[in-house]
Design brief:
The protein is an alpha/beta fold. The chain has ten helices and 24 strands. Helix 7 (270-281) packs parallel to helix 8. The protein is globular, with a radius of gyration of 23 Å. The chain starts with 5 loop residues before the first strand and ends in a 9-residue tail after the last helix.
Length: 445
């Protein structure tokens, strides 16, 4: 008989991290499962959060550090859930752990393997805006603070040549014979917090995204602003690395726009992050002056402090135009864009902008909905978990609780509130089962 209660948290973004910390502080042992090589999720890619405009990496780093040092939390990176068997109170979570090719117990994050690596690959963390090495760490604040090797791009693993990192590693951490592993976690309950994916305008090739270099998504723009991004905090447009003087944001792309009908629902926080980016972008150019325009259908500033943030944007001369542009054309020599739209008095006009930012919607990704379906968690037509108004964190399957983006798209502050709520419900139910002493260990796998 096992006496320590344990919970599996699926998803290593800000929601999963907060849920894990809440449970760990309450005395539960937590298995935190993340498919990438490090924790942080979307928040790690942000520069600031609205409406307080606090530094996102600063806020996240304290949670990451606390998570890495807590004795009640085990982080399972590069891991995917294969199945969850058993009833609430006695569940078996089966994981597939992909190889790191660098022993995490020996790695001291000295960066020597990355320095000597000669193979480059698009940096997924920076959304392909620059390149990383085949031996890399996900981001500077990554937890676990360990390097991994990209199996698809490593010359030693794909062609049997090179291996320079193995020779230079001071601790002998490189292991090209590392294999995929299967893990089984015996837990009382599970919190599902896989996060959100951004809608891709490339899927339907709208607004010139695939052919115009100076049309970027809002998350790409976030990385262009970031001090840890490809431009080290200096805003430059992709076509020629010139600082933009005029930047426009186009709202509701992929969420409420008619041509991209995958979601057809408001993501709730896109209006606010566009205002945040417009306000902050001036601090990332040398002139400290920039013309910022937001094209919108309607503004949804419904959260605490959001309306004040909207007024702040207008006070700082951010221009708001109620119109959805119908045509995006390249500027001279393919640099910048011309945006054509109808004004409020039904006149057709066109303006030039150095950079156009598509404020894309966010939604549960295909992997998240497939995972929910596999686990027997009922979802609606938008891919969101079906829950009741009186039990908002309880899924259709007993023992699996929902937090964050799987409930509905929401900002970071509300997501953290969800994380605490889901952890509280899981702790209460699990604690009651512990008192009944009904928890049995599954046979060794």
């Amino acid at each position: 008989m096992k006496t320590t209660c344990s919970v599996a948290v699926i998803g290593g973004g800000v929601v999963g991290i907060h849920s894990a910390l809440e449970l760990a502080k309450a005395g539960f042992y937590v298995h935190l499962v993340e498919k990438k090589s490090g924790l942080g999720g979307l928040m790690a890619q942000m520069e600031h959060i609205f409406p307080t405009n606090d530094c996102s990496p600063c806020l996240l780093s304290t949670r990451l550090l606390e998570c890495s040092r807590h004795h009640n939390i085990a982080v399972h990176s590069q891991s995917r859930v294969l199945d969850i068997q058993g009833p609430e109170g006695n569940m078996l979570v089966q994981l597939r752990k992909f190889p790191d090719f660098i022993d995490p117990d020996k790695c001291i994050a000295c960066n020597k393997c990355s320095e000597i690596c000669i193979r480059f690959a698009p940096d997924e963390f920076n959304l392909g805006l620059d390149f990383r090495k085949a031996a890399y760490i996900l981001h500077h604040q990554s937890i676990p603070s360990k390097y991994v090797i990209d199996e698809k791009n490593c010359l030693r693993l794909t062609r049997g040549v090179c291996g320079a990192c193995e020779k230079i590693c001071p601790t002998g951490a490189i292991d090209f014979n590392d294999q995929e592993k299967s893990l089984s976690l015996n837990v009382h309950s599970v919190i599902l917090a896989p996060g959100l994916d951004q809608s891709s305008p490339a899927e339907e090739d709208i607004y010139g995204y695939t052919i115009l270099p100076d049309v970027v998504t809002s998350l790409e723009f976030e990385r262009l602003l970031s001090h840890s991004g490809p431009n080290k905090g200096i805003l430059k447009r992709p076509s020629d690395s010139i600082e933009p003087k005029r930047v426009a944001w186009l709202q509701c792309v992929g969420s409420r726009t008619a041509r991209m009908n995958r979601i057809r629902t408001c993501s709730s926080f896109c209006c606010m992050y566009s205002m945040k980016q417009a306000i902050n972008s001036r601090n990332h150019v040398s002139r400290r002056m920039m013309d910022c325009t937001i094209f919108f259908n309607d503004i949804r500033a419904h959260g605490k402090g959001h309306e004040q943030f909207y007024e702040k944007a207008k006070d700082q001369k951010v221009r708001f135009i109620r119109s959805i542009p119908h045509t995006i054309l390249p500027g001279e020599d393919g640099k910048g864009v011309y945006v054509s739209y109808a004004t409020s008095d039904s006149r057709l006009t066109s303006e030039y902008f150095d950079l156009l930012v598509l404020s894309v919607g966010f939604f549960p990704g295909r992997e998240s909905t497939e995972l929910a379906e596999m686990l027997g968690v009922r979802t609606d037509r938008f891919g969101l978990a079906s829950t009741s108004s009186f039990n908002p964190f309880e899924s259709s399957r007993k023992g699996i609780y929902i937090a964050g983006g799987m409930l509905s798209p929401r900002g970071i502050r509300q997501s953290i509130t969800d994380a605490v709520g889901a952890a509280g419900v899981a702790a209460r139910v699990t604690g009651q089962m512990r008192k009944k002493d009904i928890y049995q260990e599954w046979p060794a796998q």
